[in-house]
Amino acid sequence: xxxxxxxxxxxxxxxxxxxxxxxxxxxxxxxxxxxxxxxxxxxxxxxxxxxxxxxxxxxxxxxxxxxxxxxxxxxxxxxxxxxxxxxxxxxxxxxxxxxxxxxxxxxxxxxxxxxxxxxxxxxxxxxxxxxxxxxxxxxxxxxxxxxxxxxxxxxxxxxxxxxxxxxxxxxxxxxxxxxxxxxxxxxxxxxxxxxxxxxxxxxxxxxxxxxxxxxxxxxxxxxxxxxxxxxxxxxxxxxxxxxxxxxxxxxx
Amino acid sequence: xxxxxxxxxxxxxxxxxxxxxxxxxxxxxxxxxxxxxxxxxxxxxxxxxxxxxxxxxxxxxxxxxxxxxxxxxxxxxxxxxxxxxxxxxxxxxxxxxxxxxxxxxxxxxxxxxxxxxxxxxxxxxxxxxxxxxxxxxxxxxxxxxxxxxxxxxxxxxxxxxxxxxxxxxxxxxxxxxxxxxxxxxxxxxxxxxxxxxxxxxxxxxxxxxxxxxxxxxxxxxxxxxxxxxxxxxxxxxxxxxxxxxxxxxxxxxxxxxxxxxxxxxxxxxxxxxxxxxxxxxxxxxxxxxxxxxxxxxxxxxxxxxxxxxxxxxxxxxxxxxxxxxxxxxxxxxxxxxxxxxxxxxxxxxxxxxxxxxxxxxxxxxxxxxxxxxxxxxxxxxxxxxxxxxxxxxxxxxxxxxxxxxxxxxxxxxxxxxxxxxxxxxxxxxxxxxxxxxxxxxxxxxxxxxxxxxxxxxxxxxxxxxxxxxxxxxxxxxxxxxxxxxxxxxxxxxxxxxxxxxxxxxxxxxxxxxxxxxxxxxxxxxxxxxxxxxxxxxxxxxxxxxxxxxxxxxxxxxxxxxxxxxxxxxxxxxxxxxxxxxxxxxxxxxxxxxxxxxxxxxxxxxxxxxxxxxxxxxxxxxxxxxxxxxxxxxxxxxxxxxxxxxxxxxxxxxxxxxxxxxxxxxxxxxxxxxxxxxxxxxxxxxxxxxxxxxxxxxxxxxxxxxxxxxxxxxxxxxxxxxxxxxxxxxxxxxxxxxxxxxxxxx
Lengths: 252, 745
Fold this sequence. Notes:
The complex is a heterodimer of chains A (252) and B (745). By secondary structure, chain A is α/β, with parallel strands linked by helices. Helix content of chain A is 26%, strand content 23%. Chain A is globular, with a radius of gyration of 17 Å. The two termini of chain B are 48 Å apart. In chain B, a hairpin with a 6-residue loop joins strand 1 and strand 2 (73-78). Classes of the chains: A alpha/beta (252), B alpha+beta (745). Chains A and B meet through helix 1 and strand 6 of A and helix 8 and helix 10 of B.
């Protein structure tokens, strides 16, 4: 059983959706971690969910990065633990520097809620290991500020290092202007850090885990990380360990 | 101290009402008390013109857990759960400041729901605007939509549907009616009621500022050219604060430390204290010096009347205060004890050592004046109900007429709007916005709830009683088309100045029609809202009762939507009609008139139709279902094809003899006869469907098949409509974005 920590900031509103997807659809373990906590209580993977943390006041994700829990998330990421930032969670990862770049308002200055096509660029992250490169996933977006921007040198580094994980694309897999809902540079929908264990994306995989709500294409992100963790053999090693909290230390 | 007419007028009080206040108090009120009476006796809070009529509505039924009179109504949905819902208007603020007016309308209705201990799970909005040709109307629409999205998206409650219509009369007075649905454990519903002498009265949420003072009185006055100067009376919303309040309140309500909760909406602290007190038959004693204030130097008058948003009043059990405070602390909210419950029935307001107001709770609430205002049908009604000769001409170019109708803003796709709403958050939305009524599953059960908001001001102008019967029937039919049995109704009654006998007549007729239809369809009314004085410069809006119906779908996996899911399906028209065109979209769009008599409605047949559809869907016998409404059969058929991925339809329908001398083809294609639904059925199931309809005494006509790339309709062996689907759909899709893209919010 993989345990996902779902960090709850004041104003998070996709926390319950992530919990539902992991616990009730995937059958894995999920627990909420309040933003004032200083430990991830031995989680195997961390999700920063979508929403409007701190009301998006000042700037999306700008206040959440100062929450006590973010020090633990940063330590967890530094130790190689898989971290997924979804929508506002992605914005928080940008603000706290775990991922590069920034979000501008959507190019038409409007909030967009719709299904988009998402081309999988890389399968060498813990969240895409079971996907196929070039595969187009159908997932919803729901954001007003998802227009990804990074300076040219950063953008070049992201492309050179293969750190663009998802791109907005047509159903046929073409990353066209028309398929780009928000104006993001290079149609970037999701990226990862150099170590590839921290992934952020604007679309909502947790909303695409059941046919009843429109798509099951988001499941692969979660099944990938479950598989990845069990392959690493960490779970067994950790379960053999003793004290509660040991998992986090092992991951470090 | 005595007040002159000017002061009374500024408080929206008549001399007679002032005399009544003196009688109730046994003395003259001080200015603070006068302000309290002013807001509590405003039309908005007291329902003084509408109450005698609203009393006639059916409010009981086996599922009713909470009827009118509380923050929201509630009906049982099985599994120990209740659906909690209500609709409320925010018309006047949305005209003055569209973004904040609409946003705070959404915030207010959400508070009404979680105040009851329910988790809000869906929002819908019924909107009316003036024609898009006028940039001012476009600005209002853009601002309202951005405001609804700005609040709902941020707080994380999906906006799953609603309706939008256009008419000239809404130009100076748009309508913004916000609906919220929540789910609560039936036995854990919390009321807005104070009880327990000595229990603590807590204030929690945003600090009190000077915004929104006299909002309730503003909502009870007509508009004129000076209304734009009333901007300080519109509140500013903070969805983040409300999200914290929502989570904290729901967490607190899981304990049993709270006996009553009320949000501070219209009339603010005055309303919250006097209503909880009077419902519980107790007094409330508060010290306003303890009320958290955003500005310095606020007077008791201002603090008591402020309509600052995101504030709640809680009645906490004695001895449980620390528990409640600690939960609020967790959410970084500051809960302040401002007073306690007393036995004497008096709302006593202190400012430290001084008593600044002392009024019986009942005087502010139950003893508010009730008016039986004079009523008289409008003088021009007979003329309006006669069709002018020029509309009777034979229909030429039906293809073009259909194109015009699907391109009318009222019929056109609302994607430009709902795409700005997060309609999926909480992952319960099982019919995407725009594809049918809003449908959300109830996690932890197999069930789902469907909601439809409907109102047709044109029908109501021509016959308010019939128009309202039709609105209730349509809302119920729409949830039935998703597969849900209607179980409860709420209403938002938007009318002009009730002091005018013709407006009061429209109102009374509408309420009578609503009661009539609810009784016949056995749908109880569990609450609602009245918005009067919707006039600008003496011109009233179309009388617009908006009816919200909640339906229960026993098995969420059976849900059906509007769109044809496949080619090669049989299309069956359930129901029939005379093809009435009175008050139709056809007459408005093609001839520019609102004339004639609205369609007939046989409620027994309507009920049979709705039960049949729910039954057929529960047995998996229909693949899609869509009601015939604005634009009649032809538009309904086109809408079934739109967003299907290019599935057309080839149909032959029996011609009807146009009523009132109208052209036969126009009546057959565009007549808006009630109680009709277009369903698609797998060929193998058609015989079963037709037989079931026959047993239910519902006419069922096999009219054609899905498929092809055109919308084709044959009448009397003549192909009258043969329209490329892509052309029609492009027209339907582009209307709003053509008008509104590039429009700054």
